[in-house]
Specification:
The complex is a heterodimer. Chain A folds into 2 domains: 327 residues, Rossmann fold; 95 residues, ANL, C-terminal domain (GMP Synthetase, Chain A, domain 3). Chain A is 31% helix and 24% strand. Chain A has 11 helices and 23 strands. Chain A has a 9-stranded mixed sheet with strand order 4-3-5-6-7-8-9-14-13, with helices on both faces. In chain A, strands 10-11-12-15 form a 4-stranded antiparallel sheet, with no helix packed on it. A 4-stranded mixed sheet of chain A has the order 20-19-18-23. In chain A, helix 5 packs across helix 6, helix 8 runs parallel beside helix 9 and helix 10 packs across helix 11. Chain A is globular and about 70 Å long. Helix content of chain B is 31%, strand content 40%. In chain B, strands 1, 2, 3, 4, 5, 6 and 7 form a 7-stranded antiparallel sheet that branches. Classes of the chains: A alpha/beta, B alpha+beta. At the A-B interface, helix 11 and strand 20 of A face strand 1, strand 3 and strand 4 of B.
């Protein structure tokens, strides 16, 4: 079933006209309502009149996460705070978090694209959805909630964690659809086995997994563990949250809802579009959002894209799974982690600037673990064991407060963290994703 | 006063060896050592014949370490002497933060190395002498 058939199967020519019409309107809307963007466009020498159609999009300047931070909280908004019905906050690189907001129409849009996601994954009217994404400031939980609500499915707002209860809910209500991070799904399979349950006999037959990168081998592992169809969902809070793109049951790329989120794939260094099928950075323009519409937002995610039609009938372009990042952001249990955040914390502790390294691992339990190694130099070294322990604890607590996930801190000897060309390697990702 | 070199070490194979390798290069002699284990890491405390030189060479090799004054008390090897020594310190409200001791040879004398908190700045050498013990002075220790 296709949720918004008229839009999702629209002939490419019509789609292009729709995108053109929307972009022209959007640029005028932003230019009139958002002084920060007006200045940005003036500086780039672009006036709304220069944008006649979608092909003019390359005339527009990019928007980056840095812009979000510099104009925190409301600088990039095109609507006053009183027009917002909801806001969400995610972690920023340093200092300010990233704030996004929604008008009532934006929430309607979110519900619509999330209903498309659910249908794309194979949901049918009458389905039960167990939503094990975190409810709260993170967009995952509420995004799925609004989509299921729009589609009229029965929602179990389980939120994240409490694995035994998740499994009990599954056994008691037999939901066919599970939405959570892929690593949590595998973790639940282990827990189920420990409780003497056979995951393959479980009720979940469709999984909608996202908020962290994952691979084909991981998909196979999940599908075999649970005897389910495991699909990939993509999104980011700056654009809307989850609901930017989703795999259909053919699992041949993620359908990107380009009538509302216009995608470009560019060379991250030159900013020039790459040929179709080549890897590049995904850049998105939100064509119809009201509260905080963004022009050419650089997602920093590396993907490839094809506009070849899909067997499912949808005409929207499809992207590959995320192949990498153009910055040093890592995603751990759905949380964005930047090494600069760790640096910020360490600097805040007695003004030290030690060498550190983040080690991300996915052990047998299948949940990602973060270990922060901090080199003990003469500035932080104390000859009292209790002070060293206190330092370790303090670093751990402050980092946990910023990232809102559990981490472990390991103090290591000077010069033990690998350096390449004199520069320390800040992140070691041992996960096989 | 005796000087102890306190060294930060990770708790993994080969770390103690790396310290003894550096000390051997400079032909430094270890008289006593102990390790405080704290899981992933520990503090190694050593008494050597040339503590200043040891600290410098270790620091040059990138080892996190510091020099610290400790009391080296000569304690005759007889039952009740540790009780006597600790009573003396308790009477002056001196806290022993860390300590290690040994006898050599058995039956003759022992040495206790004590890291103490002495906020009142009491003359501990006199206190200890009053109780019949003596503190190794620099000359005895380091053959100045």
């Amino acid at each position: 079933m296709i949720w918004n058939e008229a839009i999702e199967t629209m002939p490419l020519e019509d789609l292009k006209n729709l995108q053109s019409e929307r972009l022209v309107k959007l640029v005028r809307y932003i230019y009139e309502r958002c002084p920060v963007y007006k200045q940005k466009l003036d500086k780039a020498g672009v006036s709304p009149g220069d944008i006649q159609g979608i092909e003019d999009i390359t005339k527009l300047p990019f928007t980056t996460k840095l812009d979000m931070r510099d104009h925190y909280p409301y600088g990039l908004f095109s609507r006053p705070q009183s027009d917002l019905v909801e806001i969400h906050v995610s972690s920023g690189t340093t200092g300010n978090p990233t704030l996004v907001g929604y008008t009532r129409d934006d929430l309607k849009l979110w519900g619509d694209v999330m209903a498309r996601v659910l249908c794309c994954a194979g949901a049918k009217p009458g389905d039960f959805v167990q939503n094990a994404y975190g409810y709260g400031l993170f967009t995952g939980g509420l995004g799925f909630h609004y989509g299921a609500l729009e589609m009229g499915l029965t929602i179990i707002p389980a939120s994240s964690g409490q694995t035994k209860r998740q499994l009990k809910i599954m056994q008691d209500f037999k939901p066919r659809i599970l939405a959570c991070t892929p690593s949590y799904c595998l973790y639940m399979a282990e827990e189920a086995k420990e409780l003497g349950l056979d995951p393959r006999q479980g009720s979940w037959k469709i999984g909608i997994f996202g908020a962290e990168p994952w691979s084909e081998p991981m998909r196979n592992e999940i599908e075999q563990a649970w005897d389910m169809l495991a699909t990939d969902v993509y999104g980011l809070s700056e654009i809307i949250g989850p609901g930017v793109s989703q795999e259909c049951t053919y699992k041949d790329g993620l359908h990107l809802f380009s009538d509302v989120f216009y995608p470009e794939i560019i060379d991250p260094d030159s900013g020039v579009p790459v040929p179709e099928g080549s890897n590049g950075e995904l850049v998105i323009t939100t064509l119809t959002k009201q509260a905080i519409p963004l022009l050419r937002y650089r997602t920093r995610d590396i993907v490839s894209m094809t506009s070849q039609p899909c067997r499912c009938g949808r005409t929207s372009p499809r992207t590959s799974k995320i192949k990498g990042r153009t910055d040093d952001m890592i995603i751990v249990r759905g949380i964005n982690v930047f090494p600069s955040q760790i640096e910020h914390v360490l600097l805040g502790i007695e003004g030290i600037h030690p060498h550190y390294q983040l080690v991300i691992d996915r052990k047998a339990h299948k949940l990602d673990e973060v270990e922060i190694m901090v080199e003990v130099d003469e500035k932080i070294f104390s000859d009292e064991i209790k002070r060293m322990s206190a330092l370790e604890q303090k670093i751990r607590k402050e980092i946990e407060a910023i990232l809102s996930i559990g981490v472990s801190v390991k103090l290591v000897e000077p010069k033990t963290i690998q350096r390449s060309e004199g520069k320390a390697k800040r992140v070691v990702d041992k996960r096989s994703i | 006063m005796a000087k102890q070199v306190t060294i930060f070490l990770e708790n993994r194979p080969g770390r103690m060896k790396s310290i003894s390798d550096i000390l051997l290069e400079k032909n430094l002699n270890i008289w006593a050592f102990t390790i405080q284990d704290r899981g992933d890491f520990g503090l190694m405390k050593i008494i050597v014949d040339k503590p200043d030189q040891a600290q410098i060479v270790l620091a040059e090799r990138g080892v996190a370490c510091v020099l610290k004054d400790v009391l080296a008390v000569i304690v005759p090897d007889r039952p009740g002497n540790l009780e006597k020594l600790t009573t003396a310190l308790l009477q002056k409200n001196v806290n022993i933060k860390d300590a290690y001791g040994f006898v050599c040879p058995t039956g003759k004398q022992g040495i206790c190395y004590l890291e103490v908190e002495n906020p009142a700045g009491i003359d501990l050498e006199t206190v200890i002498a009053e109780h019949g013990f003596s503190i190794l002075n620099d000359k005895e220790l380091y053959d100045l």
